[in-house]
């Protein structure tokens, strides 16, 4: 009577699962509002150095005035003669004319964080990702000691508190501090809720339920948040809107229960049984007390046997002691850095593409839906390696093409084409990110899976602190971020070839299994081609 059998008796896809999936969807909306609020509050609209003769001019007229000036946004004008600006020999620009999107006031327009201060949003936002590294380790530690549910609630409220604090700052140091606090919950609330949902769903319904809920609700949050920001009109009030819904997690403990599997690992058998009885009652199932007694007896005996056998426990550092596992681990760490950084830059690099960054961000977020469907339809057919490699390689091609288009085309005249390329880039990045999560979990042996995935995730989050600086490269040459990211994605696609295929294979349970896993497999082995070859040979 293991946990899966017990859950089947209590109901593995009933009313309780519907409720927990809806809460998972709500958490995804909170996560999208929280994570991309940093993008929305620091959007920098087109701007020019202010001059008395420029008051009341439209955007096209301002562009004409500055047409012959190399740095129009930061060059002080001495005079305007016949509609042409004459640059001043000396002087520093202290006021700017901003072409605000529907009057939206961002932190860069309010505090004039442009020109010689244009690095300040990037510097402050990098603290957000530093906070995410600290938060992942901190709340990961807490989740193993006080439980998944309380850690989820604390992480979500911590992130909301950071966003709320940010809405009251006026200086870079306080902005950095507030973003650090906000970053503490980044992704942590998503992963903790993911674990809770994963454990209370039947194995057959996990892939479909989790991916569809993620695609629909996360996409909804991304597509609506830019319009909400424009409707509110001010970055400070938008952060209130993004943070206050987080209070909804306070009702989670009233609707769902703690991870029963975590309680079993902590030998809290009575509490685990209480959770499962709650699930059974919610689903309208009647389960005899004798069945629960058998269930507890099974786990008591199992724990006793494991304590006798496992005198030396596998550790994450043990993955570096043998050559193949060491190569797999280093590859997964580096791939996580590449994919996380690429996704963040592609999702945030929305300015100067001929379209309102708000509209571009909102409309191209629809890419999350087909990305989720692509994972469901293709990953079990072409394999994990093929999916990860193809997504990164295809994303690299699209990002490269986008960079060249930005370099040689006028964004204002080819805004639709660039928007399509951005959407395709986000599609490739999203597929890469989603495929990476499952692929890494299957390569890593069961005995160290939780700790290893956490460390790999932390490495990826740490790389995200560089995203703002990669985007800042556009100040020197507009296509530079796209070129840099495309090189990384091509390199990541190559790294995928060095990893073993995991589709339809017995996954490694310990470090010894991991070292010998897919030992004789070729770098160029792909299940889809292998099946085709077998079919032709049999014919």
From TrEMBL:
InterPro entries reported in the protein's UniProt record: MFS_dom, MFS_sugar_transport-like, MFS_trans_sf
GO cellular component: membrane
Pfam families according to UniProt: Sugar_tr
Parts of the chain that traverse the membrane: 16-36, 122-142, 149-170, 176-196, 208-232, 238-257, 328-348, 360-378, 390-409, 415-435, 456-474, 480-499
Sequence ranges assigned to domain Major facilitator superfamily (MFS) profile in this UniProt record: 71-504
Cell compartments where the protein resides: Membrane
Topology relative to the membrane: Multi-pass membrane protein
PROSITE patterns in the record: MFS
Main location as per UniProt: membrane
Keywords (A to Z) from UniProt: Membrane, Transmembrane, Transmembrane helix
UniProt GO MF annotations: transmembrane transporter activity
Domain of life: Eukaryota
Matching PANTHER family: SOLUTE CARRIER FAMILY 22 MEMBER
Name the UniProt record assigns to this protein: Organic cation transporter-like protein
Species per Swiss-Prot/TrEMBL record: Drosophila madeirensis
């Amino acid at each position: 009577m293991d946990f899966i059998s017990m859950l089947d008796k209590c109901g593995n896809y009933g009313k309780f699962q519907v409720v927990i999936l809806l809460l998972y969807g709500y958490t995804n909306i909170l996560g999208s509002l929280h994570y991309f609020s940093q993008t929305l509050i620091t959007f920098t609209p087109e701007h020019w150095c202010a001059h008395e003769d420029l008051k009341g001019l439209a955007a096209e007229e301002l562009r004409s005035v500055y047409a012959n000036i190399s740095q129009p946004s930061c060059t002080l004008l001495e005079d305007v003669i016949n509609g042409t600006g004459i640059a001043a020999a000396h002087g520093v620009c202290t006021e700017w004319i901003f072409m605000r999107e529907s009057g939206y006031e961002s932190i860069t327009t309010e505090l004039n964080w442009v020109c010689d201060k244009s690095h300040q949003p990037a510097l402050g936002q990098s603290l957000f990702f530093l906070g995410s590294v600290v938060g992942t380790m901190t709340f990961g530690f807490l989740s193993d000691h006080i439980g998944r549910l309380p850690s989820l609630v604390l992480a979500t409220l911590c992130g909301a508190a950071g966003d709320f604090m940010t809405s009251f700052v006026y200086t870079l140091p306080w902005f950095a501090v507030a973003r650090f606090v906000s970053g503490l919950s980044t992704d942590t609330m998503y992963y903790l809720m993911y674990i809770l949902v994963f454990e209370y769903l039947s194995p057959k319904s996990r892939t479909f339920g989790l991916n569809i809920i993620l695609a629909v609700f996360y996409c909804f949050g991304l597509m609506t948040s830019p319009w909400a920001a424009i409707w509110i009109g001010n970055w400070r009030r938008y952060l209130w809107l993004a943070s206050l819904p987080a209070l909804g997690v306070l009702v989670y403990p009233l609707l769902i229960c703690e991870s029963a599997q975590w309680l079993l690992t902590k030998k809290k058998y009575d509490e685990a049984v209480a959770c499962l009885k709650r699930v059974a009652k919610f689903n309208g199932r009647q389960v005899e007390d004798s069945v629960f007694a058998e269930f507890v007896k099974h786990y008591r005996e199992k724990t006793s046997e494991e304590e006798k056998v496992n005198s030396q426990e596998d550790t994450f550092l043990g993955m570096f002691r043998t050559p193949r596992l060491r190569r797999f681990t280093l590859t997964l760490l580096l791939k996580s850095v590449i994919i996380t950084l690429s996704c963040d830059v592609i999702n945030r690099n929305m300015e100067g593409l001929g379209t309102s960054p708000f509209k571009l961000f909102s409309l191209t977020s629809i890419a999350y839906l087909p990305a989720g469907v692509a994972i469901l339809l293709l990953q079990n057919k072409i394999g994990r390696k093929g999916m990860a490699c193809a997504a990164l390689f295809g994303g690299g091609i699209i990002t490269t093409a986008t960079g060249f288009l930005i370099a040689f085309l006028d964004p204002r005249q080819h805004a639709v084409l660039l928007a399509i390329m951005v959407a395709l880039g986000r599609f490739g990045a999203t597929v890469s990110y989603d495929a990476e999560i499952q692929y890494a979990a299957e390569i890593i042996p069961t005995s160290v899976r939780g700790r290893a995935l956490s460390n790999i995730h932390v490495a990826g989050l740490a790389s995200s602190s560089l995203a703002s600086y990669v985007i800042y490269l556009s100040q020197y040459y507009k296509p530079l971020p796209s070129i840099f990211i495309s090189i990384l994605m091509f390199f990541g696609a190559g790294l995928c070839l060095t990893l073993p295929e995991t589709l339809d294979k017995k996954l490694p349970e310990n470090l010894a299994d991991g070292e010998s896993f897919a030992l004789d497999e070729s770098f160029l082995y792909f299940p889809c081609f292998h099946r085709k070859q077998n079919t032709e040979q049999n014919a």
